[in-house]
Amino acid sequence: MKTNTTIDAPQLSNLLRVGLLAFTVLCTNSASAEDAVKRAEVPTIKVGDRWKYEQADRRTGVKDSKFDWRITAVTASQIEGTENEGTLLMTPDLSIMESSTSVVSGEVKTLSFPLEVGKKWAYKASFANKVTGSKGRWELKATVVAFEKVKVPAGEFDAFKVEYKGFWNSDTTHSNGRLVLANWYAPATRSLVKTEYDDGYNNWVRQLVEFQLQP
């Protein structure tokens, strides 16, 4: 026995209204989730966090340096740790102020949180090499150009790509030149996962090979 079911105009209108509301909520939630992913706030670095990097010459592919970062203290003004048993000091937004090989001062602004595609900033900094004794200055303009997947030895991560263009000046040799740099910051690792550097003399890539984060 067939049962004919009919929907009158008010019922149809109500069903359409409910369907439209559900669709709107779904789209809004999806957009909110996507926006949250594409915006990175300053990470919460914790004592015990650790990252290991390898650096290689981009022209030859030869691996020439390894870096082991371990966080030992976190305050409101800085992050303290060790790099290969030497000193590691960073600002809360992960800009290096001192490493085992160098000291950086001035407008140290490698990253500027929150990160989102299209954001721009500029900074000037001075540096001193602990090993060679050389000193110099950087002047750079940074732009967050993409939110993309990047594959490194530690894995594949969603990361913000930041490009830097500018100049360097050596106070020791009185020489200067252009500087092109790119960093990939991955929220999942609370750190940079890849860096490409080219100042006309040094041309290298540094990649994350291992990390351990405290819960």
Question: What does the model show?
Answer:
- The model is unreliable at 1-5 and 18-35 (pLDDT under 50).
- The chain contains one helix and 14 strands; from the N terminus they run αββββββββββββββ.
- It is mostly beta strands and 215 residues long.
- The chain has one helix at residues 9-37; strands at residues 39-40, 50-57, 63-74, 79-83, 86-90, 96-98, 102-106, 115-116, 120-129, 135-152, 155-170, 176-186, 191-198, 203-212.
- It has a twelve-stranded antiparallel β-sheet with strand order 6-5-4-3-2-14-13-12-11-10-9-7, with no helix packed on it. A two-stranded antiparallel ribbon has the order 1-8.
- It has one domain (42-212): Beta Barrel (YmcC-like fold), CATH 2.40.360.
- The longest helix is centred in the first third of the chain and has 29 residues, at 9-37.
Report a brief summary of the structure.
The protein has one helix spanning 9-37, and strands at 39-40, 50-57, 63-74, 79-83, 86-90, 96-98, 102-106, 115-116, 120-129, 135-152, 155-170, 176-186, 191-198, 203-212.
Number of DSSP strands?
14
Structural class comes to mainly beta
Helix coverage percent: 10-25%
Task: Give me the CATH fold name.
Answer: YmcC-like fold
Q: Please write the CATH class name.
A: Mainly Beta
Low-confidence stretches: 1-5, 18-35
What letter string, H or E per element, gives the SSE order? HEEEEEEEEEEEEEE
Shape: globular
| Overall tally of domains | 1
The rounded distance between the terminal residues' Cα atoms is 63 Å
CATH architecture descriptor name: Beta Barrel
Please work out how many helical segments DSSP would assign.
1
Report the mean per-residue pLDDT as an integer. Answer: 88
**Could you give a short account of the major beta sheet?**
12 strands, antiparallel
Radius of gyration: 24 Å
Spatial order of strands in the largest sheet: 6-5-4-3-2-14-13-12-11-10-9-7
**Beta-strand level of the residues, as a percent range?**
over 45%
